[in-house]
Every structure is written in structure tokens, then in C-alpha cells.
Amino acid sequence: MTKKKDDKELGKESKTPIDPDKVAENPGLLPYASNVGAVSIRPEDKGKIVGRAMSSMADQTNRQMDQIKGQIQTLAGQAKQLQNRVEISQQIYDADINFEPVPGKVYFLYQKKDETMLLSMIAPNEWGRKKPFESFVASVQLLSDHTWEVIEYSDDQK
Fold it and tell me: What positions belong to coiled-coil segments (predicted)?
């Protein structure tokens, strides 16, 4: 505005037919369009912005929670397998063992008539008519940490 007045004071006539009092000094800084050809500026709907952000946040956190749940289930399964190895290892070490087991080899666990257990190198189908056990329990393998892994349970033990 002061520029327009300065022009008048200098004797120059303003060539703009618009009233100088109705023209902004810096129209580019206005929070709204200053002429017909200017880009339309609309205020954002904060509710929509927050809603979309909340939806995205919930989706992402749900994905991460599902991933963590999957990891927990995997770890729980591994813990159960380890617990089963400890239980069968205790059963085997309480059994009659007449040899020194070698890690990596497969052995066979039997239950005798007096309810005690027997670990043998002989598979159930390799026994003759006289079997020194009541029932076959499982095929087991000695691991390097001296726990036992069940390779196969008998049909009665499943």
C-alpha cells in the first residue's frame, strides 16, 4: 500500500484500475487464493487425517503383533520339544543299559514285564521268539549333548 501511495506522491499515476486499498502487499503469503486464477487452498479435514493415520498405525502394529505371536509359538514349540527330550532322557538313564551308547546311533527302548525299562541296540523286528521285554516303547537317538531324541514312538505309545 505504501508503494502505491509513494507512486502517487511522486506524480506517477497508478495503471491498475483496482483500488489500492483492496490489494495485498504480499499476495503470495495469504492463507487463501488472492485472484481467480490462483490455486484453490482448502483447509484439511483433521479428522480424516487423524483417522487415516490411526488406521495405518493399527494395521502396522497388528502386523508386528502377529509376527511376535508367531515367534512366541515357534519358541514354545521348541521349548516343548526340549522338555520332551529331557523327559525321555530321564526315562532312558533310569533304564537298564548294558553297553555304552554312542552319540548319533539309534537305539531301542523297551518296557519289561516288571515295568522297568531296557535300552537295547536290537530293533523290535530283530528279536527271535524269546523277547526280554513286554512292549516296544520307542526308537531313540543319543544326541551330542547326551539328551535323547525320539525318532519313532511305537504304535501303543502315540
Answer: 58-85
